[in-house]
């Protein structure tokens, strides 16, 4: 288990590296099911591919920062059952539209609105990250936040069972 806190003084390398490593791992071996819970969500940079170092993992992607929606769409394309829960607020509209308007994919991320959602986290087959952070620019770089990462299979299974029971999508 690992706890990461941010100070609200800009991007935190530890947090950005954590997100990047988790998503690169997911792209290499996609989870059967990936839950993303974020009441407020934006298309934050999650992979720094500016040197093109991930071209074998993301063939055809240019050498630039890779955004959250691009990773979620690619994971769905690779067979992961991606489920995104968020609130129906104007600031979430762009991300919701990007995830819902993906053409040519039989399996695409499922986006559901939960008006009172306050839970935040991501759970895949090999990890569960949870805490106070929304997946937004402010959550990533401005607010004081705390997230906990676990790779304990029992905790991951418990979170997945709870998410499936509570948030039936």
Automatic annotation (TrEMBL):
Q: Name one Pfam family in it.
A: PLDc_2
Taking every annotated instance into account, which residue ranges of this chain make up the domain Phospholipase D-like?
47-155
**Top-rank taxon, per record:** Bacteria
User: What is the recorded name of this protein?
Assistant: Phospholipase D-like domain-containing protein
Sorted alphabetically, which NCBIfam families does this protein's record hold? Answer: DpdK (NF041068)
Report the InterPro entries cross-referenced here. Answer: PLD-like_dom
Organism of this sequence: Kribbella jiaozuonensis
């Amino acid at each position: 288990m690992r706890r990461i806190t941010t100070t609200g003084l800009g991007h935190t390398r530890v947090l950005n590296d954590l997100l990047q490593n988790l998503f690169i791992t997911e792209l290499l071996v996609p989870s059967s099911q990936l839950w993303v819970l974020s009441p407020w969500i934006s298309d934050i940079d999650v992979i720094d591919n500016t040197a093109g170092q991930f071209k074998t993992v993301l063939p055809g992607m240019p050498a630039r920062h890779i955004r959250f929606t691009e990773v979620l769409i690619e994971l769905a394309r690779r067979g992961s059952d991606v489920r995104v829960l968020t609130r129906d607020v104007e600031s979430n509209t762009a991300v919701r539209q990007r995830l819902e308007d993906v053409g040519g994919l039989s399996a695409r991320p499922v986006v559901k609105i939960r008006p009172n959602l306050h839970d935040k986290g991501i759970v895949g087959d090999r990890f569960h990250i949870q805490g106070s952070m929304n997946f937004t620019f402010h959550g990533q770089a401005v607010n004081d936040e705390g997230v906990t990462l676990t790779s304990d299979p029992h905790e991951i299974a418990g979170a997945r069972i709870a998410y499936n029971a509570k948030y039936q999508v």
